[in-house]
Amino acid sequence: MKKHLLYTTLTVIAAISSTCLALAQTAGGPNPVITEIMYNSPESGNDSLEFVEVYNPGLNAIGMDGFFFASGFSFTFPSDFVLGAGEYVIIAGDSVIFEAAFGVEALQWDGATTQLSNNGEGISLRHPSLGLIDTVGYDDIAPWPTSANGQGYSLVLCDPSTDNNVGTNWSVSQNNTGVIVNSVAVYADPAQAAVCSTVGIADDNVITTLLYPNPTEGEFRMQYAATEKAGAFDVFNSAGQLVYSQVIPAGSTSIIVDSKLQSGLYLIRFMAGDKTEQHRLIIQ
After folding, report:
1. H helices within the chain, ranges in order?
2. Which of 61, 199, 233, 284 is 20 to 30 A away from residue 11, measured at CA?
3. C-beta atoms surrounding 101 within 10 Å
């Protein structure tokens, strides 16, 4: 009985110590950041080179015990995994194929190789005690770089200190890996600083907007440059049905929406005068 109690006590202490390590190393400094996403590599059919990169921007190592991905794909970090200061870690759909292609070690997510949506979705890193650590709602439409969708490029966060839910803070990688898939060169920066140039909105007929948080659990905000003319803010569900609409007064710069919409993927259409911009919104 004493041995069992001692073992149980030590197990509890170890679990508490592990949680405290994560708490101490993240609460006192920057959290891990999602900095690269290859969501549609140029293979035909099964995208075996899909991966997500996580970076530790802090000055201290982070014990990753308990950290997990629950949206986008499923993965829990090994209990003994430590992400060093300034280091990167890759979670891939097929770690064997990934390592053979890029010569970089990778952890492997659970389930099917291909899990990241080619149409955009939310990816969230969480911790049982700390809650939401980081989340990215990437997309395949502007202002997100569209050439990351099947054209051989990964999405890279040019500056890890910027908001990674803003599409214009991301670029497509400029680093030619030397990997060729279906006659397409693969550009990516796995486990290293991004080689990129910030990509802005190329279409002059677009309004520069910021939609956040995305993913959201309900309420969200859109910020935009003041418009001379009144406009409209429309929300469509995945079936293309209009489920929410709001008039945008001329001269306004932001709106807050608490639409009470159910969980799912929605298309946001923002119009002002002859200019239009679209975003995908994920409600969890």
Report:
1. 2-27, 95-102
2. 61
3. 20
Q: CATH 2.60.40.3080 spans which residues of the chain?
A: 209-283
Task: Quote the CA–CA distance of 47 and 38 in Å, as a whole number.
Answer: 10
DSSP symbols for 64-103: -TT-EEEESS-EE--TT-EE-TT-EEEEES-HHHHHHHHS
Give residue 209's pLDDT: 62
Q: b or e along 178-195 (b: 16 or more beta carbons within 10 Å of the residue's beta carbon)?
A: ebebeeeebbbbbbeebe
Domain at 29-187: CATH code:
2.60.40
Chain segment 70-94, per-residue pLDDT in tens: 889 999 999 999 999 999 999 999 9
- Rounded to whole angstroms, the Cα distance separating 269 from 260 reads 18
Q: Read off the tokens for 88.
A: 């990167």
Is residue 21 within 8 A of residue 29, CB to CB? The reply is no
Does residue 17 carry a pLDDT above 60? Answer: no
Q: Could you confirm whether domain 209-283 is CATH 2.60.40.3080?
A: yes
Q: What is the pLDDT of residue 153?
A: 92
Contacts of 9 (CB under 8 A, 6+ apart): none
pLDDT in tens, 170-214: 988 988 899 999 889 999 999 998 876 433 333 334 455 677 777
pLDDT reported for residue 237 = 80
CB 125 within 8 Å of CB 107: no
Laid out side by side, the sheet with 231-236 consists of 242-248, 231-236, 264-272, 275-283
The reported pTM is: 0.65
